[in-house]
Amino acid sequence: MSIELRQHFEKITPLTDQEFDYIFSHFTTKKLKKRQFLIQEDDNVTNDYFVVKGLLKASHFDKEGKEYIMQFAMEDWWVTDYQAYFSQTKATLTIDCIENAELLCLSLQNRDKICSELHKIEHFFRKKSNFGYVALQRRILSLLNSNAKERYEQLLLQYPSLFQRVPKTLIAAYLGVSRETLSRLFS
Hints:
Helices cover about 50% and strands about 20% of the residues. The strands form 2 sheets. A 4-stranded antiparallel β-sheet has the order 1-8-3-6. A 4-stranded antiparallel β-sheet has the order 2-7-4-5. It is of the alpha+beta class and about 190 residues long. The protein has 9 helices and 8 strands. It is globular.
């Protein structure tokens, strides 16, 4: 698991063996099975999770029980309920496994510690946050300005492997349409 994490960090900043070993010592590991929950609404959220293997989804359910998928997270991605993680409040999202998953867990306390001690790690997380803000803005603008077919084509172009791994009902929930609407658009 450490190889994947090191490669991930080094896409943004090079690390010595000693630096990486120190950083890695602040992570714990977690393995989950398909359909198992990582976070449920109202849980305390103590970790940010780096996906080493597997596929997860972060969702919100409205009062009627309708699921709104906020994010998919596959290998080389981070996932958590960031509002709850950074403010140390209860989760408003549910995160569960679409596939068996292997994760590296980083507590907020350990994140703050390694960021304060290693400028390059603070730089790494700042860059990752910036990329996340850009992706979130694109997603919101897509929901506001694109129709379902355009959103589907955009998602297919951006993440083609997702379509081999995710059932169409979940793709529909991510795009904000019903499964039937998705089928009609592409039959």
